[in-house]
Amino acid sequence: MTDDTRRTNPNDAVLDWPLAAGEPGREVWYGLVGRPTGGLAFWFRYTLLSTRAGHREARVWAALTDAERLERSFLATRRYPLDAVSAGEGPFRLAVAADGTIDGSTTDDTGDSDAELTSRSARGRVTVGDGTVVDGERADDGTTDGSTDPGIGSTLDGATVEWELGYDPDAVTFTPLRSRRLTDLAVRVLGTGRHWSANESVWIDGRLDLGNESVAFEDAPGHQGHTVGTNAPTEWSWVQCNAFETPDVALEALSTGGSLSICFRHDGETHFLNRLHHVVGPRANATSRNEPGSWAFRGRGEGVYLEARVESEGHWQRAAYFAPDDARRYVAHCSLSRVAVRYRVREGGRRGEWGPPRRADSDAGRAEWGSTERPVPGTYRPTDWPA
Asked: What would the mean pLDDT of 326-354 be, rounded to a whole number?
């Protein structure tokens, strides 16, 4: 493992990849972008994994949710060996070599990378449902079980999907626990991971090529984060939204292990409800309801009081993750969630009088529920994890 005290960029790799066979670890970089009014959203991930049983891989993920044209929604992945990945620092750059796929295929003879992430840009490509077969086997549900995981009935099956996105880095980084010392203690004693919302709220320009079609993004609300650990949580809930009708409002919340951390932004102000007393004890942030598709919570402190509701009705992306403990985590993700926030802010500073009630609403929130069990019914992809 690298010395975390020397990290200057919240996206810098923490683990010393490639890990040795049998050394557990996972490191994930992800991003999301969508139309500000909802209706279409894109989710992408770059993951590095090493399990106790010796499974090691890198993977590039892409998922499109299109409410107006459901037939072209998809979730697809492509696997690579760990030595196909480089994770440089100063400045941060994660790159996946084009000629390093696990099945030995070469997608580009120029030496270019299939995927790349920096702190201000993201690009990548995957093929949706190309029918690649590994060892001639097929998944239990009848779809091809290959290094490029099939889409789920998408009209884009067979198409190569490419994205190229750019954004100005966010000055705000959100972590579940503000104290670095307490975070380090939790990692050592409890085995919890670390998380940085490195670009908590950004505005993205770029394009998503979908075979013969393309989607353009201009000043589109987006988010980018980084998480790492020697294992994965057994359950979590997460929401992020910066596409509210009220300008300059952003909300992020993460619930795991019985604790809830919140970041709320408005009018150029940022309220981090992630001190120790915000996540445990009588003054802690509180959840009144939380089940897949419906979440209500509240928080108070740092000059703000807020209540939030998250409702996700359909438009699920069902993802299966493999964890360092050689077990699966199932994620139900909805990038077209309704998010409603009611809040009050102290005027004249954190000891001032409470101002009038305010509200912020959006149909373009990103929410997910993860667990060792399937949060919602359906087929979870990819299906090519070890048995």
From this structure: 94
User: How is 199-237 classified by DSSP, letter by letter?
Assistant: EEEEEEEEEEEETTEEEEEEEEEEEEEEEEESS--SEEE
Indicate the SS3 state at residue 243: coil
According to DSSP, residue 189 is labeled: H
Yes or no: say if 81 and 98 are a contact pair by the CB < 8 Å rule.
no
* Closest among 27, 23, 73 to 51, alpha carbons compared: 23
Report the distance separating Cα 270 and Cα 253, nearest Å.
Answer: 13
Mean pLDDT of 87-110: 68
Give the DSSP per-residue string, 335-372: EEEEEEEEEEEEETSTTSEE---EEEEEEEEEEEEEES
Rounded-to-integer distance, Cα 15 and Cα 100, Å: 21
> With contact defined as beta carbons under 8 Å apart, do 331 and 312 qualify?
no
Neighbours of 68 (CB within 10 A): 7
CA distance linking residue 47 with residue 344, whole number of Å:
39
8-state DSSP, 183? H
Q: Residue 380 and residue 139: Cα distance in Å, rounded?
A: 12
Phi/psi-derived region of residue 182, left when phi > 0, alpha when psi is between -120 and 50, beta in every other case: alpha
- Under a CB-based contact definition with an 8 Å cutoff, are residues 30 and 59 in contact? no
Q: Is the pLDDT of residue 119 over 80?
A: yes
H or E element at residue 181: helix 180-190
DSSP characters over 262-314: EEEEETTEEEEE-SHHHHSSTTS-EEEEEETTEEEEEEEETTEEEEEEEE--S
Residue 133: its pLDDT value, please? 26
CA 380 to chain centre: 16
Token match 């807020």: residue? 306
Rg (CA), the chain: 20
Mean of the pLDDT values across residues 308-324? 96
Q: Quote the CA–CA distance of 323 and 57 in Å, as a whole number.
A: 11
Pairing of strands 250-256, 93-97: unpaired
Q: Is 9 helix (H, G, I), strand (E, B) or coil?
A: coil
* pTM of the shown model: 0.89
Q: Within the chain, what is the greatest distance between any pair of CA atoms? A: 68
Tokens of 149: 């995981």
Mean pLDDT, range 89-116, rounded to an integer: 70
pLDDT score for 90: 83
